[in-house]
Amino acid sequence: MDKNKFIKDSFAISDRTLKIVDEAEKSVSGQFQYIENICEINQLRVMKAFADNRVSDTHFVPTTGYGYDDVGRDTLDRVYADIMGAEDALVRHNFISGTHTISTALFAVLRPGDMLVSITGKPYDTLEEVIGIEGDAGNGSLKDFGVKYRQIELKEDGMPDLDAIRRCFTENKVKAAAIQRSKGYGWRPTYSAKEIGDLIKFVKEISPETVCIVDNCYGEFVETEEPSAYGADLIAGSLIKNPGGGLAPTGGYIAGKKKYVELCAYRLTSVGIGKEAGASLGFNRQLYQGLFMAPHVVSQALKAAVLCSAVFEKLGYEVDPKPDEVRHDIIQSIKFGSPEKVIAFCEGIQKGAPVDSFVTPEAWDMPGYSSKVIMAAGAFNQGASIELSADAPIKPPYIAYMQGGLTYESAKLGIMVAADKMTGGKA
Q1: Is 318 exposed, middle or buried (CB count within 10 Å of its CB: 0-12, 13-18, 19+)?
Q2: For the chain, how big is the Rg over CA atoms in Å?
Q3: Which residues contact 222 (CB under 8 A, 6 or more apart)?
Q4: What is the Cα–Cα distance from 141 to 134, expressed in whole angstroms?
Q5: Average pLDDT over every residue of 256-283
Q6: For an engineered disulfide with 323, which of 293, 310, 311, 337 has Cβ 3.0 to 4.6 Å away?
Q7: In the predicted model, is pLDDT for residue 188 greater than 70?
Q8: If you average pLDDT over residues 306-332, what whole number do you get?
Q9: Is the pLDDT of residue 49 over 50?
Q10: pLDDT of residue 216 exceeding 50
Q11: Does position 425 have pLDDT exceeding 70, yes or no?
Q12: % of the chain exceeding 70 in pLDDT
């Protein structure tokens, strides 16, 4: 059977789009090989952690009530710690999002009168109310509890401003430094684990007691090491992104130095209880299996991002990263310059999704965001960013962010549908 004929007959994709996608795919074959090599190393890292911690089906047995002596839960923490290159980890289905894990880490470490400094510019939109940049006084933000906040803007090239960081940390006693690995809703480079490690080393040389907290969302398994292996005191992320492998139905993780992970556990549950309680309720099997699948699923998402970059660059749009760049997260940014094009792109991605392909996404006031946001997400797990999705704030310069894809083949279809919709299938 001719593949392109089947795609054309089944999904009404134009010959022009099929030709562009074929050319784009051939042009990035070297990138695909690089990604597959990273995937194999990461899969072996996961296999070693599973073997070293003697994972067995007894770890999948559900617990209820207080969940004391939940061996599956406790072993999963150790597996994550090993993979992340950390002293300890806290992996729980109770975490509802990446924002929840990062918020937990911030509240765990900071006390009234302390100073938090974001050294990679503005944090992700949903953290603004957590910090107290946005939102009403009295909502329970860090600001309400007397935590001071500073923000060091990035340089024009999108890299951290080391001179400004040095001045700030020399003039102030800084309790915690916040570092965002991925670009969020920005147009700047995503930082590699090593670059984050170098930044942490720079901070520690000036202020050894400062706790460095990394928002690691979208970056797990893109490289062969995580920021915790390069000195991060805490890293945090969501299980419905990379490390859940598309199988975790919810949850999040925090990993890092043991004493700080313990504080996070006290914040999540109760001081004095921490990690000792918390029933797994039968979620363990999905969290283990999702972690096992994560390196492969992340590689599929990365290949989809590379293809998307190549296709839309050929269509004349500015893309970041470019097709031949080494990647440090799964996100592909495309600058469209108009709300109509952003919306059309997201509608196209939605039509290429396995779930709710018939739905038309609309921009709306999502909780935690300062502007209307449109999200295309035809996912098996609601809002799972490791599954094919695209989202964008409806504000200049009108950038759409695509991420995920449980399989390269299905994500490729979504990209083709989006490209065809953007061009109207015309030459």
Answers
A1: middle
A2: 21
A3: 38, 242, 298, 302, 327, 328, 329, 330
A4: 9
A5: 97
A6: 310
A7: yes
A8: 97
A9: yes
A10: yes
A11: no
A12: 99
> Alpha-carbon torsion 187, 236, 305, 9, what sign?
negative
| 427 pLDDT higher than 50 | no
Q: Taking phi first (over 0 means left), then psi (-120 to 50 degrees means alpha), and beta for anything else, what does residue 102 get? A: alpha
Closest CA to 144 of 155, 135, 132: 132
Please give, one letter per residue, the 3-state secondary structure of the chain. Answer: CCHHHHHHHHHCCCHHHHHHHHHHHHHCHHHHHHHHHHHHHHHHHHHHHHHHCCCCHHHHCCCCCCCCCCHHHHHHHHHHHHHHCCCEEEEECCCCCHHHHHHHHHHHHCCCCCEEEEECECCCHHHHHHHCCCCCCCCCCCCCCCCEEEECCCCCCCCCCHHHHHHHHHHCCCCEEEEECCCCCCCCCCCCHHHHHHHHHHHHHHCCCCEEEEECCCCCCCCCCCHHHHCCCEEEEECCCHHHCCCCCCCEEEEECHHHHHHHHHHHCCCCCHHHCCCCCCCHHHHHHHHHHHHHHHHHHHHHHHHHHHHHHHCCCEEECCCCCCCCCCCEEEECCCHHHHHHHHHHHHHCCCCCCCCCCCCECCCCCCCCEEEEECCCCCCCCCCCEEEEECCCCCEEEEECCCCHHHHHHHHHHHHHHHHCCCC
Could you report the per-residue pLDDT of 270-312, keeping only the tens digit for each? 999 999 999 999 999 999 999 999 999 999 999 999 999 999 9
Specify the residue for token string 């003697």: 54
Position 84, amino acid? M
Mean of the per-residue pLDDT values of the chain = 95
Q: Is the pLDDT assigned to residue 365 strictly greater than 60?
A: yes
| Angle, CA of 361, 96 and 70, to the nearest 5° | 145
* 62: preceding bond cis by omega (within 30 degrees): no
Q: Could you tell me the two tokens for 23? A: 């050319």
Question: Does the pLDDT value for residue 352 go beyond 90?
Answer: no
Least confident of 10-14, 54-58, 302-306: 10-14
Q: Token pair of 20, please?
A: 């562009």
